[in-house]
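Project outcomes to date are best conveyed with an example. Our students and postdoctoral researchers have been running inverse folding experiments weekly, and each run begins with a structure described purely in tokens. The record below, which covers 294 residues, was selected by the lab manager from last quarter's runs and is presented without edits.
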């Protein structure tokens, strides 16, 4: 990739490509960091800033998180989708990743109050994941705190630090993700593939629907993981909810990965559920008075 020339008078500071051609290196002097801490995780903190006047979120990774830093930026270079957080560039010398600045995390309690919001979030995540899987990428940490609002009514999947390119030859094994969202095959450290994201998505659907963040409140994380691994424990089904949504959710958390739908099928079904609930809502609304134009 050739170095980019920046037009004279342009606000955008120069971004040059890395010698491996994988990402755009940003000069840290071009970033104006604020004191606003947007979030903090195991290996990083995310701070608000401006890059050539553009609001950005800078993920500053600690040295212990160098693997996550490389994974996240390598994955995101391969992904361009309206429902996936946009990577703008990296500062390799400081282990910074510069993202478009998004709004807050998805608040499941708020989401659960309106089924149309539930289906909007579920739709956006399904579209993002159908795309990511089609590009050979699995996320491995799908959960509400990794979904961010864009301020325009859309939701984006972020935090690709645990992501991997799907290895079809030697399917991956080992611990990853967050306990309650973890698929049985991941808990058992068996070989797993992209369907582990579908399992996590099923648990995500449950949290969106119920507004609860903990599916198994009476169990310790170890007991819950044991129950899920033995296929004797799943979140309690809420009553009086859309039966198609419930059926899809249960199929996503099936114990057998091959019995879970793929994201292409999920996206089609959830888009249909979303469209139907929007139509029903419209029908229930009182008809508008006829306007001057009839
Ligand atoms: N692009 C962004 N815009 C706004 N806030 C963000 C952005 N990226 C991350 N954050 C905030 O920082 C938190 C941690 O970021 P995340 O990428 O999930 O890191 P970690 O791997 O530490 O969980 C997020 O939950 C969110 O609150
Ligand atoms: Mg996170």
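After processing, the design step wrote out the following sequence:
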């Amino acid at each position: 990739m050739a170095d980019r020339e920046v037009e004279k008078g342009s606000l955008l500071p120069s971004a040059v490509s890395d010698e491996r051609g994988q990402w755009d290196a940003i000069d840290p002097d071009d970033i104006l960091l604020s004191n606003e801490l947007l979030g903090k995780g195991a290996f990083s903190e995310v701070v608000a800033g401006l890059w050539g006047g553009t609001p950005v979120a800078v993920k500053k990774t600690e040295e212990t998180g160098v693997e996550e830093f490389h994974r996240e930026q390598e994955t995101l270079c391969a992904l361009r989708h309206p429902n996936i957080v946009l990577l703008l560039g990296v500062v390799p010398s400081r282990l910074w990743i510069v993202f478009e600045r998004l709004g807050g995390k998805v608040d499941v309690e708020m989401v659960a109050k309106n089924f149309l919001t539930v289906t909007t979030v579920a739709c956006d995540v399904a579209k993002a994941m159908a795309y990511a899987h089609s590009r050979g990428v699995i996320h491995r940490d799908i959960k509400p705190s990794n979904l961010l609002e864009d301020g325009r009514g859309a939701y984006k999947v972020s935090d690709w630090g645990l992501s991997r390119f799907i290895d079809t030859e030697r399917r991956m094994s080992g611990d990853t993700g967050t306990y309650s969202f973890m698929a049985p095959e991941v808990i058992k450290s068996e070989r797993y593939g992209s369907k582990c994201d579908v399992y996590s998505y099923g648990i995500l659907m449950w949290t969106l629907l119920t507004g609860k963040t903990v599916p198994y409140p009476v169990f310790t994380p170890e007991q819950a993981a044991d129950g899920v691994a033995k296929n004797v424990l799943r979140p309690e089904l809420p009553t009086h909810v859309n039966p198609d949504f419930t059926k899809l959710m249960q199929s996503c958390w099936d114990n057998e990965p091959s019995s879970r739908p793929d994201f292409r099928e999920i996206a089609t079904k959830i888009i249909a559920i979303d469209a139907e609930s929007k139509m029903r809502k419209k029908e229930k609304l009182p008809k508008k008075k006829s306007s001057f134009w009839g």
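The chain has two domains: 14-100, 104-280. Confidence is low (pLDDT under 50) at residues 1-21, 290-294. The training component of this project remains on track.
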